[in-house]
Design brief:
Oligomer: single chain
Helix content: 40-55%
Structural class: mainly alpha
Number of helices: 6
Radius of gyration: 16 Å
Shape: globular
Length: 214
Amino acid sequence: MPTNIEGVPAPHADFARLRRLNARAVRDSVALIDRAAPGDLRRPTPCSAWTLADLLAHMTAQHNGFAAAALGHGQDLSHWSVGPLGADPVASYRAAADHVIAAFATVEGPDRAFALPEFSRARTFPAGRAIGFHLIDYVVHSWDVARTLGLTYAPDPALLRAALPIARAVPDDASRLAPGSAFRPGLAADHAAGTLDEILTTLGRSPDWCPPLR
């Protein structure tokens, strides 16, 4: 996620529903990553200059960081660090996904303060907004994984309806050009595009992306 996210609103008034939708996005990503073979980790992804191994390491670290934030330890940067992939990176990813879902389940309301130092060290964010950040990341990164592996990604329409206003509210500014930014400058969308394609183009992904020929 980019660092300049001041304008992103809490995506849904029903906090329990938001948590359920976020869990669905995370589980979708697990189902896709479970299909990756060791040789797939070298594949290029829609994330510029990242292989699937790089993307998987990033996604694992983000789960751990957001889980720490939900449990009151998000200010510790060690929870957000991207480490080397272990002997079984798919199992490590699955464990991190379970961890963040369980951590979010402990948050009782949308106003709990989350420390998200990757976004801002000067302030905290309400839980409803923070979980919205996480949700949009895993909708888009699930598409990244699916496209990398040549798999179909067809998320629940309710998940896409929740994700679209978050995507629209992410500032499209110079922060998207910073090294390591998860999103690139927005692209023009086809007027007939579906909700997923609109989310992707809003966040700088081309729905037509295909892996380069070997």
